[in-house]
């Protein structure tokens, strides 16, 4: 008798919900929302990631002149040309140096400060943790302007404090160290 009452109760719920129980109705709403969300994510992925990558890859086999509007097939000539270009190899070397130095210093400084903050010798740990986290949450545009001011040859704080008269950001020798310093501070 008890089984019969449960079955009749379920049948009443199904009739009320258009043939579905409360659980299946909730699940169908959840699945439909998930499907819609996934569709939007796929569309976003295709428009802003897959299509630009495809166009860049397809464009690498063409010679394109936007002023004239020509788009001529050249095959692998662009790749052959770039492999003999000295500027390309210099940019690869600069990227490798920048990456290596930045990563090594970030790891060393990060581990060093983490060990320092976890030691019992340091007081005001919460304040220092907040100060160390500030570069991470500061917008990159604001950081760039502050560092441009600090590296300025006339009014820059670094030249005034050190007494060096270096044109940091306009020198081929000092531009990379200046950007590495800023990157290490920002991503520290």
Automatic annotation (TrEMBL):
Transmembrane spans: 36-54, 96-118, 130-148, 168-185
A GO cellular component entry from the record: plasma membrane
Keyword terms: Cell membrane, Membrane, Transmembrane, Transmembrane helix, Transport
Keyword Metal-binding on entry: no
Bilayer topology term: Multi-pass membrane protein
Localization: Cell membrane
Coiled-coil boundaries: none
InterPro entries in alphabetical order: ABC_transporter_permease, MetI-like, MetI-like_sf
Subcellular location, principal: membrane
Single biological process term from Gene Ontology: transmembrane transport
Start and end residues of each ABC transmembrane type-1 domain: 92-188
Name of the protein: ABC transporter permease
């Amino acid at each position: 008798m008890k089984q019969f009452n449960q079955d009749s109760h379920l049948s009443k719920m199904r009739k009320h919900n258009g043939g579905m129980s409360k659980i299946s109705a909730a699940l169908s709403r959840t699945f439909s929302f998930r499907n819609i969300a996934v569709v939007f994510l796929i569309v976003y992925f295709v428009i802003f990631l897959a299509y630009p990558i495809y166009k860049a890859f397809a464009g690498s086999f063409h010679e394109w002149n936007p002023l004239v509007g020509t788009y001529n097939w050249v095959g692998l000539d662009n790749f052959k040309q770039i492999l003999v270009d000295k500027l390309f190899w210099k940019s690869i070397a600069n990227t490798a140096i920048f990456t290596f130095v930045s990563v090594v210093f970030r790891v060393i400084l990060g581990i060093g400060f983490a060990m320092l903050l976890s030691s019992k010798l340091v007081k005001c740990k919460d304040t220092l943790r907040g100060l160390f986290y500030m570069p991470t949450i500061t917008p990159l545009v604001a950081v760039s302007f502050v560092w441009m001011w600090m590296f300025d040859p006339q009014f820059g704080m670094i030249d005034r404090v050190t007494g060096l008269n270096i044109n940091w950001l306009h020198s081929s020798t000092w531009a990379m160290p200046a950007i590495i310093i800023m990157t290490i501070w920002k991503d520290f």
